[in-house]
Amino acid sequence: MIIVLKKEATDQEIDHVVEKIKGAGLNVHISKGKERTIIGAIGDEEKLAGIPLMAMSGVENVMAILKPYKLVSREFRKENSVLDIHGVSIGGKELRVIAGPCSVEKESTLIDTARLVQKAGATILRGGAFKPRTSPYDFQGLGLDGLKYLAAAKKATGLPLISELMDPRDIDLMCEYVDIIQIGARNMQNFRLLKEVGLTKKPVLLKRGLSATIKELLMSAEYIAAQGNSQIILCERGIRTFETATRNTLDISAVPVLKEETHLPVFIDPSHAAGRWDLVAPIAKAAVAVGADGLMIEVHHDPENALCDGAQSLKPNKFATLMAELRAVATAVGRSI
Ligand code: PEP
Ligand code: MN
Q: Are residues 261 and 298 in the same domain?
């Protein structure tokens, strides 16, 4: 249930409504917008049946949210959520591009790559330190050393960092080093992990599961939001279909569907969708045209010898060319990069 407060509602009036809802055994999520405050009552709405919320001073409207995802729904919040990652806004008019290698390998090459993607216009650096590999014999990531190299790249460039968290036991370490926690496709429905990141104050980029529906993606985002963390970015990265020409099939229509259903920013990862570097540019352009708020692109200084996902990684010069092309597409749809 959403309780919309009047513009002039006082803190006391808001507190009173919150107390009543909590007293009935429901959780409360407060969203303070520029114009007005909205209270989300989360839990069994039946318990609020006997409480005359509409009669309380400061209350303008009381509405039921019909969708199963509440806090992340457009019903709950009409305006787009705009996240602030150390001065880098996400979800506003300006598109953001996250770039960097699939996994962190060496400090020196990571810093070089970070400098090059930054020069080309990327505003967030990616790099996996804990890698979810299909085979236990494949490179699993450098762990803590990887995070340290990321920190060195941040020091050299000022770029905020994103890296994947796979295990709740690493959460404190992750929070210490990265600015955005990535939850990978394979963990989209690891509900325990979602609850744990929901308890932190770190922004989270949640990737769509390999076989997850859009509704399931939104329900997973709700898990995070329900713990009190609404700083969530959704990321479409391709889903499993019968098609084998690409690593996954990018569900491009997920972007407009998600923009209708949720106020959260929506990104596209063309690299994991395509699995082939030569398809990254056309897919990235389509993503911008369809209304994505940003992209996550894998860039490697030497894709042929990359320890992970070399086939889908762009060389830094190709990435720079793509960024120039993306600017034109962004302008055409009233956005900028
Ligand atoms: C990644 O971003 O490196 C990754 C493993 O992505 P996904 O979870 O989408 O496969
Ligand atoms: Mn990868």
A: yes
